[in-house]
């Protein structure tokens, strides 16, 4: 009888903890916590932040470009640099002074400058960079700043007591576009491979349009429990961004 009561207590306690955790997620309200002319930082969960910088283009005007910061125990990892060195300096300063955190790594998810345009500043500050091997090849071909460390299919890095995953699933926006995943908060950073709802197809100069939907379908299958999805441009959302991107590029 005592064992039975003890087991009931353990079950109820576990359910209470899970309920509190779920409630915290549901109650979290995203908020803009930093804004200047060149950089915006929006907190989207307890330990994750979107950094948004800007790129002036001929075809699409002044385009906001997203990256992601994830944090645990005074350590962070950054997916995609801001678009230039000035904004990258600003971002690194903000993380150091406001999150009081060390930056363990920066991970550009493809070779365009809205992904690695400010990489040199991270290198200057001895912050290691990691990228898919094809991203490194394309950066070299285009005489861009080259990420220091390569991975072939995927890499797992520690951030505090948690981990992140960077992985290549296939071609789409470019032939090197990888994604980032933060399992502890079920957050997916899709970069320019994923589109915000109602977005157009955007720049296709380096794209493999015929492979795009298939690549995103693989991601959707791999991460069925994803809760927050961050695209390279525009508003973040849920797994509906995966479905929208798949439909947008689906070929007959």
TrEMBL record:
Gene3D superfamilies: Ribonuclease Z/Hydroxyacylglutathione hydrolase-like
Cofactor: Zn(2+)
Domain (Metallo-beta-lactamase): residue spans on this chain: 64-233
Domain of life, per lineage: Bacteria
GO molecular function: beta-lactamase activity; zinc ion binding
Keyword vocabulary terms for this entry: Antibiotic resistance, Hydrolase, Metal-binding, Periplasm, Signal, Zinc
Catalyzed chemical reaction(s): a beta-lactam + H2O = a substituted beta-amino acid
EC category name: hydrolase
Gene Ontology BP annotations: antibiotic catabolic process; response to antibiotic
Entry's EC annotation: 3.5.2.6
Subcellular location: Periplasm
Cellular compartments per GO CC: periplasmic space
Family note: Belongs to the metallo-beta-lactamase superfamily. Class-B beta-lactamase family.
Subunit (UniProt): Monomer.
The protein, known as: beta-lactamase
Source species: Chryseobacterium artocarpi
Origin organism lineage: Bacteria, Pseudomonadati, Bacteroidota, Flavobacteriia, Flavobacteriales
């Amino acid at each position: 009888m005592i064992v039975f009561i003890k087991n009931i207590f353990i079950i109820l306690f576990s359910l209470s903890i899970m309920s509190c955790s779920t409630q915290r997620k549901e109650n979290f309200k995203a908020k803009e916590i930093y804004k200047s002319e060149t950089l915006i930082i929006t907190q989207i969960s307890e330990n994750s932040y979107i950094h948004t910088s800007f790129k002036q283009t001929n075809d699409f005007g002044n385009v906001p470009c997203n990256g992601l910061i994830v944090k645990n125990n005074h350590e962070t990892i950054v997916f995609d640099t801001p678009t230039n060195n000035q904004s990258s300096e600003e971002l690194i300063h903000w993380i150091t002074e406001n999150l009081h955190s060390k930056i363990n790594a920066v991970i550009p998810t493809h070779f365009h400058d809205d992904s690695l345009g400010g990489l040199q500043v991270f290198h200057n500050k001895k912050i290691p960079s990691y990228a898919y091997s094809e991203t490194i090849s394309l950066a070299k071909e285009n005489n861009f700043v080259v990420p220091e460390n390569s991975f072939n299919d995927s890499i797992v890095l520690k951030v505090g007591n948690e981990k992140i995953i960077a992985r290549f699933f296939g071609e789409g926006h470019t032939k090197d576009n990888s994604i980032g995943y933060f399992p502890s908060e079920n957050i997916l950073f899709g970069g320019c491979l994923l589109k915000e709802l109602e977005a157009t197809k955007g720049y296709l100069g380096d794209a493999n349009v015929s492979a795009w939907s298939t690549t995103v379908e693989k991601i959707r299958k791999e991460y069925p429990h994803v809760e927050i999805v961050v695209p390279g441009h525009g508003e973040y959302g849920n797994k509906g961004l995966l479905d929208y991107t798949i439909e947008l590029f689906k070929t007959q």
